[in-house]
Amino acid sequence: MIQITETAAHKIRALMAKQGIDEGGLRVGVKGGGCSGLSYTFSWEKVERLGDQVFEGAAGAKVFVDRKSLLFLNGTVLDYDASLLGKGFVFNNPNAKSTCGCGSSFGA
């Protein structure tokens, strides 16, 4: 399961509206690479793919995750940091054994 904070949910909906996307959600995933071994990925999707897990937050915000990525993301809290220094989505991932300084990659 992935939990979406209210702040992240509202940011997802706002970014979708800005891009003219009415339906769909944010696809999050994991791929090999980055300073710690695995990197987070983001993309906009109009519909879920076969085999996706769909998680819903406030305001109807949806996050799509494929099965392989869910192995590394299960239990994660997706948040959004709106501060001047850290602006962006933040993964509070209990599966990350190590993370890089910028928070965009992790080791499991």
Q: Can you tell me the residue ranges where pLDDT is under 50 for at least 5 consecutive residues?
A: none
The count of β-strands is 9
Q: What share of residues is helical?
A: 10-25%
- Name the structural class: alpha+beta
* Text of the CATH class: Mainly Beta
Number of domains: 1
**Globular, elongated, flat, extended or rod-shaped: what is the shape?**
globular
Going by CATH, the architecture would be Sandwich
Overall mean confidence score, pLDDT: 87
Q: Strand portion, in percent? A: 35-45%
Measured distance between first and last alpha carbons:
17 Å
Count helical runs.
2
Strand order of the largest sheet: 4-5-2-3-9-8
Q: Largest beta sheet, briefly?
A: 6 strands, mixed
From the alpha carbons, calculate the radius of gyration and give it in angstroms.
13 Å
H-E string = EHEEEEHEEEE
Give the gist of this structure.
This protein has 108 residues and is an alpha+beta fold. The protein has helices spanning 6-18, 67-73; strands spanning 3-4, 25-32, 38-45, 53-56, 62-65, 77-81, 88-92, 98-99, 105-107.
